[in-house]
Design goal:
The complex is a heterodimer of chains A (181) and B (291). Chain A is built from ten helices and no strands. In chain A, helix 2 packs across helix 3, helix 3 crosses helix 4 and helix 8 packs across helix 10. Chain A is globular and about 50 Å long. Chain B is rod-shaped, with a radius of gyration of 54 Å. Classes of the chains: A mainly alpha (181), B alpha+beta (291). Chains A and B meet through helix 2, helix 3, helix 4, helix 5 and helix 7 of A and helix 1, helix 2, helix 3 and helix 4 of B.
Chain lengths: 181, 291
């Protein structure tokens, strides 16, 4: 907030590639919140979400050389790293075990009230836009985007044909684009 | 493909949000390079996603920033010392997840390859292995087949060489015989069949070298003896039979060289026990000829 330096995306990328600490601090200030939001929408636990955010920034730092601007914007690249890291954690055995160890009433309460530590999770970020979708679309996007299931897995989970899954997801995405405009 | 249909098919959103599979991603990246409209549509959607994400957001705990920055600083100073040891992951968007086998403890690990590509490589490796095994069998069988043929050829070649040697030896024998017959110093003693001979057509000829006194025998016809019998040539010297050696009919078609006889009035052949006898069995006197 003190420093008012702003960078264009290509300036920022080349500074990051040259391991510029100031640029990295700028990156954090401008994007950590957006990335933390997507992480929190996949990972329920606050401590785990904090760990994932750290993992994500370390990965951005390590892998900035592999970022290819031809294939997409920097934020898209970071967003995908954040989403993948979150889904990987949620699907990991250790995380599944820690969920199982929680006492039942607590998680039932949590389900009822929404996560106690991260309130209003459904009213921010991408989730907020999702709320406007039809239920049959919303369920599939939730499974695909926030839970990371493949189309084939979703067809099994929802017990609907694979072709229908694909069509509905495509239609939902076209809708989302309209809502995001 | 109609570009506008392609753009509005949902592929743009699917790609940007990381929901496209590997084939779709590859196709989309190709289309972006080919058609600026596709790329423009992608960028427009990326910007709207980014805007939305940055305006409506949660803030992480304030203490997290310094923790993350110090982690990175530590890593960087450690890394700059051993830079060359760590190869960076291949350049791609980094959207593939390792999924189920990913342990929550190895949080900071770097993803390397899309799962699809790994599978593809694994499948390709298996296919190549099967193919190479099959080829090994094929070539091994071919090798055995050719080796067998080679051995057969080798055997038949050896046989041909032996046969050739036999023919050459015979030819030399015949040449020698012809030379002898042409020799004017060679006395020829015709030996017709005797009454005691089982075959009246039996006949042999003795060629007797008058200078060296060597005796050669040419058999034109004699009955085949049994295995424990042998023909014996005798020279009649002053009315007494002198052993001139035994011979085998199957020893060859040429002439048999017999013992050297300095003086004789006649030659005769009797059938004797194998190895010959000291005196001739006159009941088996088959041929006789006077000098």
């Amino acid at each position: 907030l003190g420093t008012t330096a702003t960078y264009t995306e290509s300036e920022l990328v080349s500074l990051l590639k040259s391991r510029d600490n100031k640029a990295f601090s700028y990156l954090y200030d401008n994007y950590a919140g957006a990335l933390y939001t997507i992480i929190s929408q996949v990972v329920d636990d606050v401590d785990a979400a904090n760990d994932v955010l750290q993992e994500v920034f370390v990965n951005i730092w390590r892998r900035i050389e592999t970022y290819d601007p031809v294939k997409g914007r920097l934020f898209t690249w970071m967003l995908n790293i954040a989403r993948n890291a979150s889904i990987d954690l949620v699907r990991s055995k250790s995380y599944q075990n820690s969920l199982r160890n929680q006492s039942l009433p607590q998680s039932a309460e949590a389900e009822f009230a929404g996560s106690p530590s991260i309130p209003n999770i459904d009213n921010i970020g991408f989730r907020k836009v999702l709320e406007r979708l039809k239920k049959e679309h919303r369920v599939l996007i939730d499974l695909a985007y926030f839970k990371g299931y493949t189309h084939e897995e979703i067809a099994v989970i929802e017990d609907i044909p694979l072709g229908t899954v694909k069509t509905r997801i495509r239609n939902a995405l076209i809708q989302l684009r309209e809502y995001l405009k | 493909v109609n570009i506008h249909e392609y753009i509005s098919s949902g592929i743009v959103e699917s790609y940007v949000l990381g929901l496209a599979d590997d084939a779709e991603r590859a196709e989309f990246e190709r289309m972006c390079l080919l058609h600026p409209e596709v790329r423009a549509a992608r960028e427009a959607f990326e910007i709207s996603v980014e805007k939305q994400a940055r305006t409506s957001r949660l803030e992480p705990p304030a203490a997290l920033k310094s923790k993350i920055l110090s982690t990175i600083e530590m890593e960087y100073s450690a890394k700059s010392d051993r830079r060359s040891g760590n190869t960076p992951p291949p350049p791609y968007m980094g959207v593939a997840r390792d999924g189920q086998n990913n342990d929550g403890l190895s949080k900071l690990k770097v993803r390397r390859m899309p799962v699809g590509l790994q599978k593809l490589i694994a499948v390709a490796a298996v296919v190549l292995l099967v193919l190479s095994t099959a080829l090994n069998f094929y070539f091994f069988n071919r090798y055995r087949e050719y080796n067998q043929r080679y051995q057969e050829l080798l055997a038949s070649q050896t046989q041909l060489v032996q046969h050739n040697q036999v023919l050459q030896t015979r030819m030399l024998d015949y040449e020698k015989a012809v030379e002898m017959m042409k020799d004017p110093g060679m006395a020829i003693v015709r030996m017709p069949a005797m009454p005691s001979a089982p075959d009246p057509n039996s006949a042999t000829i003795v060629y007797w070298d008058t200078t060296t006194k060597d005796v050669y025998l040419a058999v034109s016809k004699l009955p085949t003896p049994s295995v424990n019998e042998q023909y014996q040539l005798w020279a009649m010297v002053d009315g007494k039979p002198v052993d001139a050696g035994v011979f085998d009919l199957n020893a060859g078609p040429g002439m048999f060289k017999m013992k050297n006889i300095p003086r004789a009035e006649a030659f005769a052949i009797t059938l004797e026990k194998k190895g010959g006898s000291p005196t001739p069995s006159l009941d088996k006197l088959y041929v006789l000829g006077k000098v």
